[in-house]
Design a protein that fits this description.
- The model has no long low-confidence stretch (mean pLDDT about 95).
- This protein is about 40% helix and about 20% strand.
- α5 (about 190-200) packs across α7 and α7 (about 220-240) crosses α8.
- The chain has helices spanning about 40-55, 95-105, 110-125, 185, 190-200, 205-215, 220-240, 255-270, 285-300, and strands at about 5-10, 15-20, 30-35, 65-70, 70-75, 80, 105-110, 130-135, 140-145, 150, 245-250, 280.
- The strands form 3 sheets. Strands 3-2-1-4-7 form a 5-stranded mixed β-sheet. Strands 10-9-8-11-12 form a 5-stranded mixed β-sheet, with helices on both faces. A two-stranded antiparallel ribbon has the order 5-6.
- By secondary structure, it is an alpha/beta fold.
- It folds into 2 domains: about 5-120 and about 285-300, ATPase, nucleotide binding domain (Nucleotidyltransferase, domain 5), CATH 3.30.420.40; about 130-280, Nucleotidyltransferase, domain 5.
- It holds the Pfam family ROK.
- InterPro entries: ATPase_NBD (IPR043129), ROK (IPR000600).
- This is ROK family protein.
- It comes from Micromonospora sicca.
- Belongs to the ROK (NagC/XylR) family.
């Protein structure tokens, strides 16, 4: 693999699977995307991902393919240790081995939030920073820690599970893990939906809560403000624990929560970390694929 050769990054999620050809500076040169055939099982998901990557192989260098995927990934084997039902049967899937067989080249795999953080650190909002915390707020809430430009995976590949921190104002809200009172239970699309239902009896999506707030719904705005305040305070505490150079917020629910989160973050941030900014992520839907390629590059550098 030469320094100038483009590489392939894959993003395998519960809704879509995407592939991109990424240049040596993090630029996206080509993209491919299909709906993830999640209900057809892991083999169908792997086949779909392999077809997308194979379509880009002729234009890529000879290096490994990088993958960011939903689920907790064993960093040593590229096998899924745990996944939710957004990808039925995904737990235990040997993603690295299975895709390497299909593509006839090495494959490196990490969790999708980890990949997004690597991408943002390389060519996004975290560019030129080597210590980063990224929080991804979508249907659920996940996070990734970057230290010295590399993923801090933890002992089992699960580092960054900040969604399960106990927080105030979430006592009546159920987290995706099944317990109550966690950060994900209030500061996520699912959490916004649940909190709005508690207040009004109406069950709508988290996106709809944000839309109602923008249209002047006072209860919806209260739900957003409360969730954002809890999120911002939690992130300020995590800065003191992890000592990053910046905190990035990504995901579909990030924009709705960021105003209140920013205010609470600034109010709660200890003085010793007053220069650590809270920023919106910049790469959008490309972040996981860009970061998957960065995973390959940092592995090669090792």
């Amino acid at each position: 693999m030469t320094a100038s050769a483009p590489l392939i990054g894959l993003d395998i999620g519960g809704t879509k699977t995407a592939a991109a050809l990424i240049g040596p500076d993090g630029d996206v040169l080509e993209r491919r995307q299909v709906p993830t055939p999640a209900r057809s099982g892991p083999e169908a998901v792997l086949d779909a991902a392999a077809v997308l990557a194979a379509d880009l192989l002729d234009a890529a260098g000879s290096g490994p393919v990088g993958v960011g995927t939903a689920g907790t990934v064993d960093p040593a084997t590229g096998t899924i240790r745990y996944a939710t039902d957004s990808l039925p049967g995904w737990t235990g899937t040997p993603v690295a081995h299975a895709l390497a067989e299909r593509l006839a080249r090495p494959v490196l795999v990490t969790n999708d939030v980890n990949a997004a953080a690597l991408g943002e650190c390389w060519s996004g909002a975290g560019r030129a920073r080597t210590h980063l915390l990224l929080v991804s707020i979508g249907t659920g809430l996940g996070a990734a820690i970057i230290r010295n430009g590399r993923i801090e995976a933890g002992a089992r590949g699960g580092a960054g599970g900040v969604g399960h921190l106990p927080v105030p104002s979430a006592e009546r809200l159920r987290c995706g893990c099944g317990r109550y009172g966690h950060l994900e239970a209030i500061a996520s699309g699912r959490g916004l939906s649940a909190a709005y239902a508690v207040e009004t009896g109406a069950r709508v999506t988290g996106q709809a809560v944000a839309q109602r707030a923008a249209a002047g719904d006072a209860v919806a705005q209260q739900v957003l403000d409360r969730a954002g305040t809890v999120l911002g305070a939690a992130l300020a505490g995590l800065v003191a624990l992890l000592d990053p150079q910046a905190v990035l917020v990504a995901g579909g629910a990030a924009g709705a929560l960021l105003p209140a989160a920013s205010a609470a973050y600034s109010a709660e941030l200890p003085a010793g970390w007053a220069d650590v900014p809270l920023l919106p992520a910049a790469l959008g839907a490309d972040a996981v694929m860009v970061g998957a390629v960065r995973l390959v590059m940092t592995h090669s550098e090792q």
